Structure formats: structure tokens, C-alpha cells
């Protein structure tokens, strides 16, 4: 399983996912600005992974700070935190990571600046390790929802590449496979950046899970023919009432699943749950460069018959484009939310920090009866 991000030799090393699957290239970042650029340019993407990247980027930037004491150190750290927070607004994991690092520092304000810098590195590494454990827990709970012989539909990429390792939406599939269940996966291509086509299919094929790539507008037809048993997708932000922001097109899949009585599940680590926002209407939705829609970036053949990286225009020059990176799926379309603490009904997600009653798990979630 390829790691999307690591801390090696006092640098942040990330897999350049914009080049996958044609090229496996790792980028070494010795400066926090390069980490921020990597998040913006989708060298690294996926809510948990960019939270980890932001934490490591802050730790990297802190190494260069010269300060006499705690207050001066925090003052000079603030622009670095702001640089990370400004990269991508929809995923809450970046803010979660920044808040966690600041909380760690505030709890040890009596320490020397040198020790504070080391604590940031240690905490960033801990966030990475914890994310892998969280994903495995999501996989264990989510596998209970998958039956032998099931075909699962997923949208975008919520695998190991989008996390510290193992994935969120793909984790139940991996656990089900390890339990001996025979499963198949349909992966939406996920326009316009094609994370499903480029990344999800690549990951699942490496894991030996039968995967079939479909166009984004094929899901409804396959559901109508009875070829999809359940849907599992990831999330960039889940709010208090259970509404979810995920890659653009998720809402469409959820509506289609409801129409065809197919369970629709969200795989959501606690780091992506934002109880400070009451409903999905308040989630900021990132809009990206129009060229992601008007052009397809990948390997192209030049006039001298040499393949290289380039961009192919597929729409008229100067055409108006609205490129929303995410949409919001209302909680009424969501069957259950799979977390590291269990499976919750969307209406119960607001209670996720409470200790469950004895004998219950995840808001006493009961999977629906399936055909």
C-alpha cells in the first residue's frame, strides 16, 4: 500500500497524486510554502491527508522560527497556520489539525522554543499514526454492512491516498475482502479531476479487489438494473444535523440511491466532523480553476510522437465555467455514518462525543433490511 505522505529526514514527503496513475513521483518539501502549494495543487488531496499535510507543514515552518519565548514563537507561527488554513476551505481537517497543534503548544507554554518545535513534529507524526488506526476501525465497523457477493459503488477517492493509510470509504471493502467476502466495486470516474478513474481504480486493483470504472452518469442506470447493492463514500465535512459535504456529484448519487432503495453510507473519521456548524447550508464550498473543466490534464502525444505531460482542451476558449469542487448531501438521504466509534444514524451524529449507553454502539444503529 503506497503512502501518500510521510515525515522523512526533517522533510515532508508527499506522493504527487496529480500524476497518477501514469507516473509515481514523490515530492520532498523542505519549506512549508511548498506543502501549502501541494495542498492547493492537489499533489495531496483527501480530507484526512491534507489535515496531516497541514500539521506537518506547520511543524516544518516552525523549524525556521527564531523566537525568545512562547508568545513570540506563537506570533511568528500564526502566518504559517494561516497559510495552511487558506489552501482549501471545505475540508474541516485542516482547521482540526491547526487547532490541535495550537492546543498542544498552549498546554506546554513553559517549555523552551526548541522543545516546542519538537513537540510540533511529534504531534504531526502522531496525527498520521492515529489516522491509520482510525481508518482500520472504520473498516472493521463498515465491513459489517457488506454481504458476501455485494457490489459496492463509491464516488471520488477515499482510499489510502486520501488518508494517512488504509482509507475511509475503501476500508470496509478491504476488511470485507480479508473476511473472505466476495465483493465487487464500481468506481465513478468523478469529473472533473477524475479521482475515481485515476486513483480509486488504481488502489483497488493493487489490492486485488475487482473494480469496474464507470462514467459519472452511469450510476442510475446500474442501480435500476439491480447491479449495485450499497454505496460507501467519504466526507470532507459532516455537520451537526448529519448533512455531509463531499466531492461534487455525491448528492446526485445519494438521490439516486434513495430512489432505488439502496443503502447510502458515509465513512467519516471524527477529524472530519464539525459540530460547530448546524446544517450543510453553512459549509463553505470551494470553487476551483475553470481549466479543470475545460481541459483534461495527462499524458499527451506530441508531434514527434513522444508522450509527455500536457493539457488537452475539450471546451471552447473563454466559455463560462462553474467548477464547484464539493456538494452537500442532506442527512435525509444518508442511511448511516461509519466512524471509528461505530455506525451512527445521521440524526445521532451530534451525540458522537457522548459515551454510548451500555449494550449499544454508534447510536444503536440498525442496518436496513436489504432485498
Give a description of the structure.
By secondary structure, the protein is α/β, with parallel strands linked by helices. The chain has two domains: 5-135, Up-down Bundle (Four Helix Bundle (Hemerythrin (Met), subunit A)), CATH 1.20.120; 148-285 and 323-351, Translation initiation factor eif-2b, domain 2 (Rossmann fold, 3-Layer(aba) Sandwich). It is 34% helix and 18% strand. It is built from ten helices and 16 strands. The strands form four sheets. A seven-stranded mixed β-sheet has the order 6-5-4-7-10-15-16, with helices on both faces. Strands 11-8-9-14 form a four-stranded mixed β-sheet, with helices on one face. It has a three-stranded antiparallel β-sheet with strand order 1-2-3, with helices on one face. Helix 7 links the parallel strand 5 and strand 6. Helix 2 packs antiparallel against helix 3. The protein starts with a strand and ends in a 27-residue tail after the last strand.
